[in-house]
Amino acid sequence: MDTVLVFGDQLNRRIGALAAREPGECRVLLVESEALLRPARHVQRLHLVITAMRRFAEELRDAGYDVDLRRAPTMAAGIEAHVAEHRPDRVIATEANSRAGRALCERLGIEQVRSNQFLRHHDELAAWAEGRRSLKLEDFYRWTRTDLGYLMDGDRPVGGRWNLDADNREPPPEDASIFTEPQASRLDEVDEEVLASLPDAKGAEPVGWWATSRRAALARLRHFVDHELVRFGTYEDAMTTRSWSLAHSMLSPYLNLGLLLPDEVCDRVEDAYRSGAVPLNSAEGFIRQVIGWREFVWGLYWLWPDHADSNALGHDGDLPPMFTGEASTDMACMADTVAGLHERAWVHHIPRLMLLSNVANLLGVHPRHVLDWMSDTYIDAAEWVMVPNVMGMALWADGGRMATKPYVSGGAYVNRMSDYCRGCRYDPRRRTGEDACPITTLYWDFLARHRERLSGNNRMARPLANLDRLSDLDDVRARAAAAIEAAAEGRL
Fold it and tell me: Would you place residue 257 in the very low, low, confident or very high pLDDT band (cuts 50, 70, 90)?
């Protein structure tokens, strides 16, 4: 009898090697690798992955499959122990979602079946990219959307516009009660058993925000489409102290583990638009994140094997202790965001990009430190997600290979898109003085430090022209140096 090896991020009977096998035709192997249960990782991330694996194993057993779920020091050790005990005719797996996973399969002689976990296999992006001088998300998105047919009227986009991002930039509303409380699940004996088996990892223990089964993940999808999708587009980029979830779907952990698949998510969203339940800007904005950005990032991970080593700006600083919670900060936006990560292992994409990544970049933190910390902290972390997003989009560490300009900003952006600045002791309008917003000060210092590197970038022409108009640049840079020192010492 064959063994089908299922990795912990392929937890769905529709995926790859398992999709073609009925109960009785194979044995299914899942390995809980102790090597991945590092204390540096957020406990909610560890809990989600291990609990979801155990629930999937039980789901397969209930369907009649013979399942070997085992914990082992490493993935390789678990596979080798299974082979020694069961002596399968062969071991088959769906293509792993990481380079390390695929290398392991090759080393152990495991046959790999082409993955169907994404809407585009990564070799399709590679073929699309061949011969192009630059790889732009918008070009990829239009190509993919046309091919897949989402929100299309014939060969034209519904409504006549491909991208409605310009409609999706409203600051948070005064009445945050319009956002519903995310669904939560009651922890049961499986959850408690998993938690008892984990190392003493960082972060607050789970309280049920994250679904650990396909059934619960589908319920989260229904809740989002029925209650929050209508507001998603408008407030997609907003940040507020009065709602940690706003109208975001919080579905990325389930997509990344295979509990949900991208086609069923996008189908549900398009159906909601076609029925008149949600506006086009919300449906298009969400579908673009899935079939555009998510698939784009997946393909780039495989296209650029050296991406994780990027450091085009030459940053070499350590990660300040305010990121890890080892020191407090008077920056209201950072304090709230880091607290949210501790409590839930999640914040949405704007705090990730325009607060955490922006501040790290402005402080000159080495990109690898940011990548490693985010990979250990986020509930939806996966190598293929984190490397392109951090090195390309978030930090511009690849020098523009993925994003046409660095996503850096001063405090004015934070003030416009959030309510953080209202109660903060720092003033986003000031760039010098003790009450100057560190983000504002560091923004101008960043431009001055990297002026030569950025001067040939058309999208940076206006910020650099504004930099040249500053009459107090020397004072700004002195204040920035003090802020960098204070951040390193946990005093910012």
Answer: very high
